[in-house]
Amino acid sequence: MTVLTIYERCGGFATVRKIVTDFYDRALDEEALAHHFDQVDMARLIDHQTKFVSFLLDGPASFSDDHLERVHAHLAITLPEFDLMTEVMCDTLADWGLGPEDIAIVDQRLRQRESIIVTVR
Question: Is 2 left (phi over 0), alpha (psi -120 to 50) or beta?
Answer without folding.
Answer: beta
